[in-house]
Amino acid sequence: MNKYLQLFRLGNCVMGVIGLVLATLIAAGTDVQYYLTELALASGVVFLFIIGGNALNDYLDREIDRTAHPERPIPSGRMRPETAARISVAAFMGSVALAVPLPIEAFAIVVVALVLMLAYEGTTKKMGLVGNLSIAFLTAALFLLGGAVVQRLDATLVIAAMAFLATLGREIVKDIQDMGADVDRFTLPQRIGQGRAGIVASASFITAVALSFEPYLAGRFGAAYLAAVLVADGIFIYCSGIHFRDPKRGQRWAKIGMFVALIAFLMGGTL
Fold it and tell me: What are 68-87's pLDDT values in tens digits?
């Protein structure tokens, strides 16, 4: 694979843009046609932001990757560390520059996300729960940005909150699974024990389920949304129990649940 495409994780970049587009559709429905310029700029923001984060990750983790991922551009000798660092800086600068013409709320979301990303890669990645919270917010920020781009931030608050909670639960479950291997991180399971950390993860999943009813009860979304989101809720409830026996399965189903919830919100916003 081309070393630059491998550094960029092109698939992640494309998925990020797709997530943004879906978020704008949830917020604006067919009115998104009036925000195509803003959507194009925001897509560039997300694309470059993900490139910047991936390049920074490869630069900072280059010693670890010599053993864990020797096929990546830096440890394989196909790219100098300084090149990855320069790409990261340029991508982040480009992301912020493209965000300048967007509504002020969207620009603020990008800046906050950048600060959290830099903090995560620099220090909070090794701080357990703080790192989990950072990743959860960065996931939610994609949906907040989609709403802010079309000046309907309120329309994506619930899906963003659900994304935050589901991601937080999944990250904690992942830490439970990796307890034996996490020698350089002070994770929540290490701090309070596997059982109590599991309860926190389950509480995150169940809170996401409780939030899912708000758009229907408030009258914003109809029966199609309710039918679809109930499927997502069932998956999250399943996750809240299965991860105690099988953490790997729990975090895998959490991803599926978030995808189904996204489809439910898309149906609610467009049907």
Answer: 889 999 999 999 999 999 99
3-state secondary structure of 77: coil
Phi-psi region of 90 (alpha: psi -120 to 50; beta: other; left: phi over 0): alpha
Domain 152-271 indexed as CATH 1.10.150: no
Give the angle 107-7-19 at the CA atoms, nearest 5°.
45
User: 1-151 is classed in which CATH architecture?
Assistant: Orthogonal Bundle (1.10)
Give pTM, 2 decimals. Answer: 0.91
Q: What angle (nearest 5°) sits at the alpha carbon of residue 107, between those of residues 101 and 113?
A: 145
The residue type of 63 is E
Predicted confidence band of residue 215 (pLDDT cuts 50, 70, 90): very high
Q: How remote is the C-alpha of 200 from its chain's centroid?
A: 19
Dihedrals φ, ψ of 114, to 5°?
-65, -45
DSSP 8-state code for residue 235: H
**Where do runs of H (alpha helix) occur along 61-187?**
62-68, 81-99, 104-122, 129-149, 157-177
C-alpha torsion 62→65→66→69, nearest 10: -140
All structural domains of the chain with their residue ranges: 1-151, 152-271
- The CA distance from 176 to 195, in Å, is 9
- Match 């694979």 to its residue by tokens: 1
C-alpha angle with apex 199: 194 to 202, nearest 5 degrees? 120
Q: How far apart are CA 242 and CA 161, in angstroms?
A: 22
